[in-house]
Amino acid sequence: MEHSGNSSLLGNSFGVTRRLWSKEEEEALLEGFHEICAHGWKLDNGNFRVGYISILENHMTETFPGTNLRGYPHIEFKIKNWKKSYNSISSCLATSGFTWNDIHKYVEIENDDIWTNYVQVCNFICMIIMSMVQLSYLFMFFYFV
């Protein structure tokens, strides 16, 4: 597989760079996952054996010689982002009014009200969690003072 070089680095105001993956790189990483699953790296509980990131890094290096992709931080963060996206999509699909369009590969919503209500509920839950975190910090502060 020839590397197209479409990946790039983005900087932010803190001087931290973020890597943008090309479509070819993402496809190669998925191919690497398929290979390690076929060779017994996936455990019965859904996790992977220790060292799977190194195997994926080697796969990417073989697929794209001279790449700067590393197991940490690149592959590990890509997996975290995929999990986050998967969880968001799963959450939507578990809600009435959301359906998966298998032809175009995206989530469809019956109407705008469903989306508005979904966002309001998510924001409300997020506020409750943040309030609980703040209360725990206050408790620790007063407890240790």
UniProtKB/TrEMBL annotation:
Key words, A-Z: Membrane, Transmembrane, Transmembrane helix
Superkingdom per UniProt: Eukaryota
Keyword Oxidoreductase applies: no
Name by which UniProt lists this protein: Myb/SANT-like domain-containing protein
Signal peptide: none
Boundaries of every Myb/SANT-like domain copy: 21-118
Annotated TM spans: 121-144
